[in-house]
Amino acid sequence: MVATPVDLPHGGPVMAWVPPPMNCYKVNWEVYKDLATKMWTAGILIRDHGGHVLAAQCVHVHGHVLAAQCVHVQYHPRGVHPKFYACVHALMFALEMSFAEIIVEGPTFQPLETLKNRPSGPTIGDSWLEEIWVLIQKFRRCSLSSIPPEINKGAWMLAKFGSTIKESRIWIEEVPVMLQDVL
Q1: What are the tens digits of pLDDT across the range 15-59?
Q2: What domains are there in the chain, each with its CATH number?
Q3: Nearest of 126, 113, 151 to residue 30 by alpha carbon
């Protein structure tokens, strides 16, 4: 089944996190680079229409987040921006958590802004875009957009926290401690 975009209410510029419609989930992701270690990490935060945290993850992105996750982005190919990997990881995390209708919001990243049809090109970046496009097709509904960092603060804080730990971390139906006063 081909994914279809999720309709969002239209209006003026958004200056705060906007919850998704009922029966849809918001997947916010962000990357953080620790300047001392040169390590990239990603933070992924999945919330429902009531703003409740269903899942979160911190992931190390130095090559490779209803949950929160911190993930180290490790082993990405040279010349490929860690945002490619972080976006792929956010989509895979949502799939693993069985969310079928999602709105994905992350940092501004030009290659994702142009992703309308299945990409086909000779570069490594084109291959990563194709991977993102293929993953999107696995959802019943999915849309990608970029949001300013001040609105994506929860995912950014998870990504930053991920730089302080050695292994990926996942929270399910629990607000990570560092986000309790932020969300």
Answers
A1: 788 999 999 999 999 999 888 888 889 999 999 999 999 999 988
A2: 25-176 (3.30.420.10)
A3: 151
